[in-house]
Automatic annotation (TrEMBL):
GO terms for biological process: antibiotic biosynthetic process; monocarboxylic acid biosynthetic process. PANTHER family: PROTEIN SERAC1 (PTHR48182). Keywords: Endoplasmic reticulum, Membrane, Mitochondrion, Repeat, WD repeat. This is Alpha/beta-hydrolase. WD repeats lie at residues 343-384, 393-434, 435-476. InterPro entries: AB_hydrolase_fold (IPR029058), SERAC1 (IPR052374), WD40/YVTN_repeat-like_dom_sf (IPR015943), WD40_PAC1 (IPR020472), WD40_repeat_CS (IPR019775), WD40_repeat_dom_sf (IPR036322), WD40_rpt (IPR001680). One of its GO terms (cellular component) is endoplasmic reticulum. The keyword Membrane applies. It is found in: Endoplasmic reticulum; Membrane; Mitochondrion. SUPFAM superfamilies: alpha/beta-Hydrolases, WD40 repeat-like.
Length: 485
């Protein structure tokens, strides 16, 4: 009998053994011995989507947990020696009318196989869509909602909330309307946290085995957009506070360093000025892992969620009435002056607004690569200028942060984060020119009175004056103290 036939016979007789015959005729280790693992491990598979950890027929609030990068929707919240996450094991007995959810996504962004530069944005969109679907199926679209997020999962939450606010899809906007509070645990909000993390090998954080992989290499590809999310979220919660809608925000920071890595997120970076800040006596990884209800970290987070849950709903017998009343905030219930029109259609936060000279049109620029032209009298969107919409434009506007109408209203200029300026024909939605020359954000633009020249100011510390014609554009660059002579 040949070696090949012998191997086949042995395999049939011992299906569950690791027995095999090598080319040299040597036998592999018997069953019970650890087989030799391949050098390249199989791709990691993360459970994704919404999972209900605890259901409640008469729930008064939904609490949704969102893990951080390279985390897991259950393991992130499970202490060593425990078989189930603490939100499932400990919370139900403390919050008897809470439905407890956890959201999972493939957060292993440091894998070399992941090439997309907008994974965080995709995760936020999926969180919003999946949560809205779950609440719709559970007939809980108006139920008050609390987010609890760990580490950079807080950025995913922020982005999802911003996407929900003023969303043209009512079922997606319901998430923002129902939101009562956000608990950030070890989430970096400000400061040079990306630069600090660049110094820490990912292996020290327990993320990957390769010590030559650094988180910053991945995160820097999203740097501009991440900063925009941070700024827009802070502006949003401050605006809500001014309008009278008390969106509760609490930040928890770590007290202990991780061995070999130090403090991952400093107190300064993990907190918002003017909002509650509390410490947890643990390192960055363990600050969301509790074994018993006696853990101080659990008590502090529980107290915060209980406070948010009871702040409004606890004093009203009819929770539906509270949600309806809370919804009035978005309709201008607390406006100090008369409100003429509310324009809805952008799915993300706005960067700039500009009236046409005649006042019959309003242009709005958003971080989602679109400029919209509105009829203020009717509140209708006349046209949308973007590469994904009706019009076949050359390229994305890319975070339009400055827009200006020409004096005669026939053209619209937009400056963007990608250092380019576009000249549009609003009546057709056609992009006439793309002006390139700046090396950083175009922060402001202004037309000359005869509409023959356009001035642009940039984050690259220069002013450019563009002379426009149908055949060419001439440019004058002003630097420092240089003046027109």
């Amino acid at each position: 009998m040949g070696k090949t036939q012998l191997a086949i016979r042995l395999a049939r007789d011992h299906k569950n053994d690791f027995t095999a015959i090598t080319e040299e005729g040597k036998q592999a280790p018997p069953r019970g011995c650890e087989p030799v693992r391949p050098e390249t491990p199989p791709p990691l598979i993360y459970p994704d989507g919404i999972k209900i950890l605890h259901d409640c027929p008469d729930a008064a609030v939904d609490i949704c947990f969102v893990h951080g990068l390279t985390g897991d929707r259950e393991n992130t919240w499970t202490a060593d020696g425990q078989s189930i996450p603490w939100p499932q094991a400990l919370l139900p007995s403390k919050l008897d009318r809470a439905r407890i959810l956890t959201y999972g996504y493939d957060a292993y962004i440091v894998r070399k196989s992941v090439e997309s530069s907008d994974r965080l944005i995709d995760h936020a969109t999926n969180l919003l869509v999946d949560l809205a679907l779950d609440r719709d199926l559970s007939k809980a679209t108006s139920r008050p909602l609390i987010f609890v997020s760990h580490s950079l999962g807080g950025l995913v939450c922020k982005r999802a909330i911003l996407l929900s606010r003023n969303n043209p899809e009512p079922h997606l906007q319901n998430i923002f309307d129902a939101l009562k509070g956000v608990v950030f645990v070890g989430t970096p909000h400000k400061g040079a946290w990306m630069a600090d993390w660049a110094k820490i090998p990912a292996s020290a954080l327990g993320f990957v085995k390769s010590s030559d992989v650094f988180l910053l290499d991945v995160l820097q590809r999203n740097n501009q957009l991440l900063e925009s999310v941070q700024v827009d979220f802070l502006a949003m919660i401050r605006q809500l506070r001014e309008e009278g809608r008390g969106l509760e925000v609490t930040c928890f920071f770590e007290e202990l360093p991780i061995l070999g890595a130090g403090m991952i997120v400093s107190k300064e970076s993990a907190t918002f000025e003017g909002y509650a800040a509390r410490s947890i006596y643990a390192n960055h990884r363990d600050m969301v892992k509790f074994s018993t209800a006696e853990d101080n970290g659990f008590k502090r987070i529980l107290d915060d969620k209980s406070r948010i849950k009871n702040r409004e709903a606890g004093i009203l017998k009819d929770l539906d009435r509270w949600v309806l009343e809370n919804g009035d905030y978005k309709r201008g219930y607390y406006d100090k002056g008369p409100r003429i029109q509310t324009l809805r259609g952008h799915s993300e936060s706005l960067e700039s607004l500009a009236w046409s000279t005649e006042g019959d049109r309003l242009a709005s620029g958003s971080v989602n690569n679109t400029v919209r032209i509105w009829d203020p009298a009717t509140g209708q969107c006349i046209s949308t200028l973007d590469s994904q919409g009706t019009y076949n434009l050359e390229e994305n506007i890319n975070l339009a942060i400055s827009i200006a109408w020409s004096p005669d209203g026939s053209r619209l200029a937009s400056g963007s984060h990608n250092s380019n300026i576009k000249i549009w024909e609003p009546s057709t939605g056609r992009c006439l020119w793309t002006l390139k020359g700046h090396t950083s954000f175009v922060l402001s633009i202004a037309w000359s009175s005869d509409a023959k020249k356009l001035a642009s100011g940039s984050d690259d510390n220069t002013i450019k004056i563009w002379e426009l014609s149908t055949t060419a554009q001439r440019t004058l660059t002003l630097r420092g103290a240089q003046t027109l002579g």
